[in-house]
Amino acid sequence: MALKKLETYIAKIPFLEPMGFCESPYEAIPILADNRIDAIFIDINMPDLNGMAFLDTMPSRPMIVFTTAYSEYAVDSYRYSAVDYLLKPFDFTDFQRAVNKLYIASSASSSDISQTMDDSLYVKVDYRYVNIRISDIMYIKGMNEYVQIFPLEGKPLAAHTSMKKMLDRLPSHFVQVHRSFIVNMRMIKEIERMRVTMPDGTYITVTDNYKQPFMNYIAAHSLIK
């Protein structure tokens, strides 16, 4: 019944082209393997394999809209960067809202970070872009599939990107000092025993794997003979 409702709703949206309707994750595997899939509507409680567990098996995921009768899973859906969460029973208005979000997401850049020419970054937060000056960034913290950007003022911003991609967009005075931290070397207040102190009082340890680039920067910007 749920599949039939989705099929009816999808038929009303001109830019949606269904590639398959599956009653279990195992039916979806060959469709996902043989086709370029932009989005997937997926239930959470399904035969044999939980919807979230199924997503965990995918090396790369399309855009996701969860459809479920259980509201307690809503928080978990953020871990998968879900575009929307349709709580059953949903109507066509709810469905159309989710589709509009899919359309906006598909039209945006594939990265949640884009750089402008005047030393600032546009950071995608939910479905809007926030402009932040690079010089105002204190440090970046990696969190699995996300990074958190900590500005000198205001709340941290979360972006769906990798530490490597983040480094590629930043100037050379941003140095990775830890698996989970990139610091703005110009913002460091103090360095003691391979631990840096940032303006907000945060202590960040420089680990051995990232020590050499850090020390090279210090050597190039210090008054030590």
Using brief descriptors, characterize the structure shown.
225 residues; alpha+beta; five-stranded antiparallel sheet; three-stranded parallel sheet; 7 helices; elongated
Protein described:
- This protein is α+β, with helices and mostly antiparallel strands.
- The protein is 27% helix and 28% strand.
- The protein contains seven helices and 14 strands.
- The chain has helices at residues 2-10, 25-34, 51-56, 74-77, 92-107, 163-168, 211-220; strands at 39-42, 63-68, 84-87, 113-115, 120-125, 128-133, 137-143, 146-151, 157-159, 174-178, 181-184, 190-192, 195-197, 203-205.
- The strands form four sheets. A five-stranded antiparallel sheet has the order 9-8-7-11-10.
- α4 links the parallel β2 and β3.
- The longest helix is centred in the middle third of the chain and has 16 residues, at 92-107.
- The radius of gyration is 22 Å and the shape is elongated.
- The mean pLDDT is 84.
Output the structural class: alpha+beta
Taking pLDDT < 50 over at least 5 consecutive residues as the criterion, the unreliable ranges are none
* Cα Rg: 22 Å
Going across the biggest sheet, name each strand in turn: 9-8-7-11-10
Mean pLDDT: 84
Order of helices and strands: HHEHEHEHEEEEEEHEEEEEH
Q: Mind summarizing the main beta sheet? A: 5 strands, antiparallel
